[in-house]
Design goal:
This protein is α+β, with helices and mostly antiparallel strands. The protein is 49% helix and 15% strand. Strands 1, 2, 3, 4, 5, 6 and 7 form a seven-stranded mixed β-sheet that branches. Strands 8-9 form a two-stranded antiparallel ribbon. Its cofactor is FAD. Its EC number is 1.-.-.-.
């Protein structure tokens, strides 16, 4: 297996890093997250039109670039370096794969070209804020417990007299749900006895839909609470026989690889910024980076980041390892950002310092997609490491 990046992949990384270095510094990030959209629409348009970022992994027949998950993961590593607030993960990482896997040819032809050119942003809404179990990252999602149950709880869908679907319920922690032009909503249908979870397409301007942006720990990853009151939705797919849990799990494996790349990009950037600081900051007449204890701490962080980067790249090649890679990269990000705050000393503890942008990303991502021990435990369960041993006769 050749693990070297191609010239095209290196060019994607170089071009994106060059643009984001100019357009997405800490001050620009803070300004972007305080806008109504939660990101810079002009920068998103530039990333979409000039670099084709949202369509990087979409087929050329739908207006995409025709690359694979590895190229999109490299792009996510670069967006993670600067903590870019954008609808890339929600749109290209979560919604687009579901539309590709389950959508009818008509739905794919209608939506995927608009996703590829950046004119349509999407969000995946699952009840209860249970994004990790819904994607099969921390639990088996086949049972559907994450979606609520019975006649109450979660989001319910019922057909109306005209053959359309009406949705009722609410979902929280919807990534970019306040600004997305289209929502992919997981809802129960079929009544109590035959209840099953299906996915529905809900337009942002649909009657009965209310979206409220939530206050989040990590402002660079906006979330919303959505409420549906007899809100019209279209079934994603041709009929109700689709394997929704399977499609969600496959999407979760892809998303885990992208999130791992984002996390290792953020961890690498936090480490680089810390190294620059300890080289310049002097104490007792010498740079604090020259002290042996500081060198040892930075060396340990470097090894952890490089190991996490290797895991992230492997997950982009083999999606089945996405959960384990995500666990390793989230842990690396947590450790590196915690050490970054410590090594920056008094200034690192001020809430306004850029080190806290990375620290909050580490904490919020583990809350949303982890925790790390559950990611590892679920991967071990799937691998059969915890299989029951046969009883031994005495």
């Amino acid at each position: 297996m050749d693990t070297a990046f191609t010239a095209e992949q290196d060019e994607i990384r170089r071009t994106l890093r060059e643009l984001l270095t100019k357009r997405s510094g800490p001050d620009e990030v803070r300004a972007a997250v305080r806008t109504a959209a939660g990101y810079d629409p002009r920068l998103w348009a530039q990333l979409s039109e000039q670099l084709g970022l949202p369509g990087l992994a979409l087929p050329e027949s739908y207006g995409g670039v025709g690359c694979g998950l590895a190229e999109l993961a490299l792009a996510c590593e670069e967006t993670g370096r600067v903590l870019l607030p954008s609808p890339l993960l929600a749109t290209a990482g979560l919604a687009a794969p579901l539309i590709t896997a389950l959508g009818t040819p008509g739905q794919q032809g209608e939506l995927l070209p608009r996703i590829a050119d950046g004119s349509l942003t999407c969000a995946l809404a699952v009840p209860g804020g249970a994004l990790a179990p819904a994607l099969g990252l921390t639990d088996d999602n086949v049972g559907g417990e994450w979606a609520g149950g019975g006649r109450a709880g979660g989001v319910q869908a019922r057909p109306d007299d005209g053959g359309e679907w009406l949705l009722f319920g609410e979902a929280g922690q919807v990534l970019d749900g306040h600004s997305a032009g289209l929502l992919v909503v997981a809802a129960h249908t079929g009544g109590f006895a035959r209840s099953r979870t299906l996915l529905f397409l809900v337009r942002a301007d649909a009657a009965g839909l209310t979206r409220v942006r939530q206050t989040t720990l990590d402002e660079t990853r906006p979330q919303a609470r959505i409420e549906l009151r007899d809100c019209a939705g279209r079934l994603l797919g041709a009929d109700d026989a689709a394997d929704v849990p399977g499609a969600l799990a496959a999407t979760g494996a892809r998303a885990a690889a992208l999130l791992a790349a984002e996390a290792v990009g953020a961890a690498g950037s936090a480490l680089d910024r810390t190294v620059q600081y300890v080289r310049a900051r002097e104490q007792f007449g010498r740079a604090i980076g020259s002290f042996q204890a500081v060198k040892h701490r930075l060396a340990d962080l470097y090894v952890q980041v490089q190991a996490a980067r290797s895991a992230a790249y492997y997950a982009a090649w083999d999606q089945a390892e996405g959960g384990l890679a995500l666990a390793q990269c989230l842990e690396a990000l947590r450790v590196v950002t915690g050490e970054a705050v410590q090594l920056h000393g008094g200034i690192g503890f001020t809430w306004e310092h850029e080190a806290h942008l990375y620290f909050k990303r580490a904490t919020a991502d583990e809350l949303l997609f982890g925790p790390v021990h559950r990611l590892r435990a679920h991967a071990a369960e799937r691998a059969g490491l915890f299989a029951a041993r046969p009883a031994v006769a005495v």
